[in-house]
Task: structure prediction
Amino acid sequence: MTTLEPVSVALKFGFLAVLYLFLLWVARSARKDLGAGGGPLADGSSSATIPPDATGFYPASALGVADVAHRAPRLVVERAPGHDSGMIYDLEGDIVLGRGERAEIRLEDPFASSRHARVYEQGKVIVIEDLGSTNGTYLNEELLQTPRPLHPGDRVRIGDSEFAFEVD
Result:
């Protein structure tokens, strides 16, 4: 019986070591996902130099923002439950996307909140904002934390619904 005791103790310590490594991995992944890394980016610049309105596809809104003063901004359905692909929604005024009856663009998506996101004009720029939805709004596959300007070609995803932003 005494020969099994050291093996049992070694297995217990091994299990604890694996458990702690797993917890460290989870903490590191969470920190990375929340953007607390702050390290250098792929191009060598620091994340502290990125303007707050930059998206994953564009370095800053000053470069390539869709000036909508004389254009017709719109959302085009890429895929969305209850909508035909290619359907066009003109973005005139303050537009709310969601499952609720008060939403201008109604989504038949179980992952959408009743008032999920809003698209509005701010000066000459079209801006998208999450309205505190449960599952979040994604702009170019990045979780929307604050209102962001839309650029031609941007992708907006709410649950299983995906839209492309275009201007004429």
Remarks:
- The two ends are 81 Å apart (CA to CA).
- The longest strand covers residues 73-79.
- The longest helix spans residues 4-33.
- Residues 50 and 59 are 7 Å apart (CA to CA).
